Amino acid sequence: MPDTATPGVDTVIRELGLEPHVEGGYFKRTFQADHRPGIDTPGGERYTLTSIHYLLTRDAPTGHWHLNQSDIIHFWHLGAPVHYYMIHPDGRLETAVLGPDLAAGHRLQLVVRGGVWKASHLVAGDYGLISEAVAPGFDYADMTLGERELLLQRFPRHGELIKAFTRAAPVP
């Protein structure tokens, strides 16, 4: 009978080849549609689709505030639930939990449209593993990391969440 035990965090990082991500946690690109023609965007040509594995851990529990130009679908896979916070352009806050407990309101998928500020957080557990499908494909030129003071000026009513999920100083 196959071993169905949930792997430990070190096994997940090693076996999936994950590396630290600039927004927090770990990641690895798993797909890019380089077999199809690119898509013209205001930022230049992009793949039609890219995907990654993304991992938050007890030691790296936060995906800091950032804004993507592309739409992203998040899929929960293993470990503990991952909490998401989204601030829409009009200032509306939306929250969601990706995880296994559907009866508790967890989701297996979450769509975050381009232009929405997003942060994620592992509240408990050793890790939460998700994947993301990004269309048009992800390019660092299309991502903005949240700067605490700028976000506080723009969305003052969400100050606690902004402070909790931004770094005190911008990442170089």
Write a brief caption for the model.
This protein has 172 residues and is mainly β.
Description:
- The chain is mostly beta strands and 172 residues long.
- It has a single domain, classed as Jelly Rolls, CATH 2.60.120.10.
- It has helices at residues 9-16, 148-154, 159-164, and strands at 19-20, 26-32, 39-41, 44-46, 50-57, 62-68, 71-79, 82-87, 93-98, 109-112, 117-122, 127-135, 143-145.
- It has a six-stranded antiparallel β-sheet with strand order 1-2-5-12-7-10, covered by helices on one side. Strands 9-8-11-6-13 form a five-stranded antiparallel β-sheet, with no helix packed on it. A two-stranded antiparallel ribbon has the order 3-4.
- Strand 1 (19-20) and strand 2 form a beta hairpin.
- The longest helix has 8 residues, at 9-16.
- The model has no long low-confidence stretch (mean pLDDT 94).
